[in-house]
Amino acid sequence: MYIFNNKLLIFVISVVLLFIISKNIVKIEFLDVVDLKKDVNVDLSKKQIFNDCKYLFDIISDNYPYIDVSQRQFNFSWNEDKDNFLLRAKECNNIDDLKLVISEQLDKLGNAHTRLLNEEEVSYIIDTYDKELSNSPNSWQNIILEKLNAPKVNKRYKLDNTNLFTNEINNIMSRNVICADLIHGKLGYIYIPAMKQKSNRSVDEKIINQFLDKVKKYNALVIDIRYNSGGDTSYWQEYLVPNLADRQYNSKTYNFYKDGVVSKEYIDFQVNNSDYHANNVSNLDTNVLKTFSNEIIENFKYYEETDTVIVPNNDSIKFSGNIYLLVNDYVYSSSEAFAIFCKQSNFATLIGSKTGGDGIGSDPWVEVLPNSGLVITFPKSLGVDELGVINEEFKTSPDYFIESVPNWSNILEDSCIKKVIELEDLN
């Protein structure tokens, strides 16, 4: 995730009082007050199920940043599918029906950060934020932690007195880096399977630190993040790049926010707890963004401009050789952010296939549905690079395209590694 850059938080509101669906007039009185501290109803009425679906539809419609992108990429219109979605909601009889309908509807948007969360994912977020935010009272992600610790969520996901920080997520995030001396004295290799959180990467740092001391005078270094779908951006921003850098590296990105309740909650929290200032899109100098889309001016109200500046730390090996970053379409979220940084700053040359996208921004939003206590997540901002290119739509293109399956059993025969050897003239 955007700490998941992977990005996760909640805000719950009241909704309107009436909805007319298709040609059948269905009058449903929506909840006037949403209180996450109240216990969740184990058995949901059809009215409550419908209310949750309508609530979800409105939240996505008003706040989700990639509705137009989904239409272009998948020919799917969220707003035009409203009647179909709510008709399916009417047919739901229980929590399992509701989960299925919600999951299928969110899947249509085609964004990996947008989905219904399961027990392990909710528990993982709570566990991670408990560790990461203990000394960060002004972090907006504390809102996520507070909401996910509410009785309604705990009861729905059976989180009380349990620790589900296991299985697939735990297995992925516990894998350690692999370092190899591919051509002694000339070419080093680091494979990073996940961008681990600060509290969980001491083993990675120990392995990498020992290796960097060995290869600091080498001609070239390969950093392989193929199949790395994200984690914590600080892995490369605060640890990896500062330990390698021989000079200052810079990149610039932008995030755009709609005028919905999600954006307002996020911005209000930032303003009240820091020196944060929300910029109005109408004041943006679009001449700076060469490929800027008019749809952003029309559909978004606020923006953030982020300058990422990384300098060598005191322990940096100040690597002066060439660095190559291996990527494929599984590179996503915070690992995608690393790919963007490498390409914009010229920190590394990218080799492989086009990446997966959605790497500009912070942790996704998290929303709790008012009746069921189900938790959904989605990006809260539209991220563009320094040229104005929408990252989720166009991803990051490598400098050298190599369509291949990684050959980790014989890494010197890997097509991407062969390209590095060719470029470095190490044959």
Short key terms for the protein model shown above:
single chain; 427 residues; alpha/beta; six-stranded mixed beta sheet; 36% helix
Account of the 3D structure:
This protein is of the alpha/beta class and 427 residues long. Helix content is 36%, strand content 14%. It contains 15 helices and 13 strands. The protein has helices spanning 46-63, 67-74, 82-90, 95-107, 119-132, 142-148, 151-156, 167-174, 202-215, 234-244, 261-273, 294-299, 333-345, 391-394, 415-424; strands spanning 115-116, 178-183, 187-191, 220-224, 249-257, 279-280, 302-310, 322-327, 349-352, 365-368, 375-378, 382-384, 400-401. The strands form 3 sheets. The chain has a 6-stranded mixed beta sheet with strand order 2-3-4-8-9-13, with helices on both faces. Strands 6-7-5-12 form a 4-stranded antiparallel beta sheet. Strands 1-11-10 form a 3-stranded antiparallel beta sheet. Helix 13 (333-345) links the parallel strand 8 and strand 9. Helix 1 runs antiparallel to helix 3 (82-90) and helix 5 (119-132) packs across helix 6 (142-148). The radius of gyration is 23 Å and the shape is globular. It starts with 45 loop residues before the first helix and ends with a helix.
